């Protein structure tokens, strides 16, 4: 078979440029090596053209999919026929829905509330639905805990408000739940610290709260399972003398957030290489259960200055109620018992939980409803006499960060033995759209099973909590200050 004059001419030209053996090549090879494509190279078969087209199609498709996965915020979802765990393993699930398919959870995953979504009926705005209490969390405190739940009213009896390390004198020197908000007249309350009257290193009894250990809890003989199987029944007990705080927030469109706040008068920090970091007076932790039309859908657990979110099906339950675990000392909240390690620059830090005394906060709580658009707290129909003024205090529920010249203080790589006390429930982003505490633009990953091997990165506490920099995470009246 003879080569065409054009191909022979192309071959000689290529040979002169250093490409050996071209004059002996087949017409198809001549075309390809010369860089000629159809229609200039008719000898290339239709099959090869199709293969080239497939390669181009796959390349373009990969680029488009890559762009979508990078630039679209995806939500944990389950496409038809793919198990949730497999979906997560494959990286197909993120934060806003399966591509091209509506996920029914979207309308409670990210909630935007308008004033017209909320009722103005005076009865409704004070009323907490019964299902909120029916699905109240049960909290396993650590069996070897030293610092048990605290009563916020008693806590105020043992502290003095200070500004710039100086006691505030006069009528507000002795604050209580009905006038605590008046401390906001000092620098809007931001730099007011409720400082212990005692040296905390002497461990006065009121810090320990031993009298507030919950009553015995009899859970029967049925055992326990995690996930959707509910095989253990609550029968009695679980009451603490320290009231929890329930704040329900109607987000409209059938969405209700039930925040359960747990207060402790002291937070004992964790040890790294036998050095303890993160102690502070006052400690607020919380569990959030998000409901849609009366059904629990999501659970969020606070951990230090962050937390984790789960689908309701994922968490352990007793009689349908979520079971959570409070870590020894730090009281960080977790969805399972055991060790919870964090990576630090100097080593590994562990929170520890177990099946210690089981606390039922529904048996003794201050209960409220909250309008997050107007920053209005109201006592609920369950505790209509509950005081509200304390909620608006914009300062700290414990001592200010001890200076380094204080004998009780030391620091290393940005972590300190004592840090400032925390802000109260009003600063826990009650208006959050997603169930996670972070800002709207931050990722909120919903976990669908409990991972016993998870290793987290410690975010650091610095000198302690302060007003959030992001105005979105502040109470409405303070968002512009």
Automatic annotation (TrEMBL):
Residues 204-237, 460-481 are annotated as: Disordered. Residues 215-228 have a biased composition (Acidic residues). The chain crosses the membrane at residues 56-75. Keywords: Membrane, Transmembrane, Transmembrane helix. This is Vacuolar protein sorting-associated protein TDA6. Pfam families: Vps62 (PF06101). It comes from the Eukaryota. It comes from Lepraria finkii.
